[in-house]
Amino acid sequence: MKVGIVTFPGSNREVDASLAAQAVGAEVVTLWHKDHDLQGADVIILPGGFSYGDYLRAGAIARFSPIMQEVVEHAKRGGPVLGICNGFQILCEAHLLPGALLRNASLRFASQWVTLRVENADTLFTSAYEAGQLIRVPVAHGDGRFTADADTITALEEAGQVVFRYVDRQGNPLPAANPNGSLNDIAGIVNDRGNVLGLMPHPEDAVDPLLGSTDGLGLFESLLSRVAA
Amino acid sequence: MTRFRVAVHIVPRKGVLDPQGKAVSDALHALGFSAVHETRVGRHLVLDLDAADRSAAESSVRGMCDKLLANPVTEDYEIAGVTTP
Question: What's the whole-number average pLDDT of chain B?
């Protein structure tokens, strides 16, 4: 599996994403926002950070980068795309995922460990997990409050497109367990076709015991097992 | 072509939680401005551009709002004024 990791001006987790992909044995190719070629990557990762300084809205300007036109085409062909944190914001701005990510309800930057419940283990990105499994991963964002109109939220829930939800350590969704005020405690969603996933937490930063958790590895293992080597 | 200055207001859509607006309302109430019912905090953009006439300038900026300046999922915009600088 060849993973293409896009770096925008202001990205800061592209190395973390590379290390996580390599940890499961993937080949990594780094892509620059001005590139027009995905260099044969099977999977695209849009990493975390603050592309273009979050100017205007998080992800709003990155969406129009030359490489994003290729990423959109890749997604339309059914190619897997994973957006983490700022990458999730970019995917929403690019309309590859519904909804938007707004300023945290607390108005505070959230930098903490959270517990997620895997709500759908039948996706390209989560097959190494079990439905209902609880995983520990960090979050680090100021604009992570997932918002969409009521019909969109209902449709996402009914179609199983809510993949990760913030819960407490016992697995209960509670306001105190939700770091940003996301509607329905949504932490990550997949598109209707199932090939584009966006999530605010950082699975790539939970891939080594030294980091405090290896629970994020499952996401990369899932991709590896489903995408031809 | 004439140079126009177009001002745009972009605010969070009604029904979308605006924690900044709520914090400002709370601060205003604490200061005694109890008549304030709601505050919505958004952005004000001022664009200088060349266009054939005022309506072309306005319609050009509307196109920019639809494509980039406002997020149709969460924000509303209105043209606040078109002047010649």
Answer: 96
For A73, A163, A167, the CA distances from A191, given in Å and listed in that order, are 15, 10, 22
Domains of chain A: 2-226 (3.40.50.880)
Query: Residue A229 has what pLDDT?
Result: 53
From the list A14, A74, A85, A93, the catalytic residue is A85
| A105/chain B closest Cα distance in angstroms | 6
Give per-residue pLDDT as tens, A79-136: 999 999 999 999 999 999 999 999 999 999 999 999 999 999 999 999 999 999 999 9
- A143 interface with B at CB cutoff 8 Å: no
CB proximity A109 to B under 8 Å: no
User: Does the annotation mark A92 as catalytic?
Assistant: no
- CA gap A223, A185 in Å, rounded: 24
Contacts of B69 in chain A (CB under 8 A): 56
Nearest to A206 by CA among A218, A188, A224: A218
Give dist(CA A166, CA A185) in Å, integer: 5
CA distance readout (Å), B67 to A73, A92, A117, B24 = 19, 13, 35, 29
CA closest to B23 among chain A residues: A107
Domains and CATH numbers, chain B: 2-83 (3.30.1280.10)
Residue A107 has its nearest CB partner, among B19, B73, B74, at B19
- Section B46-51 average pLDDT: 97
* pLDDT band at residue A228 under the 50/70/90 scheme: low
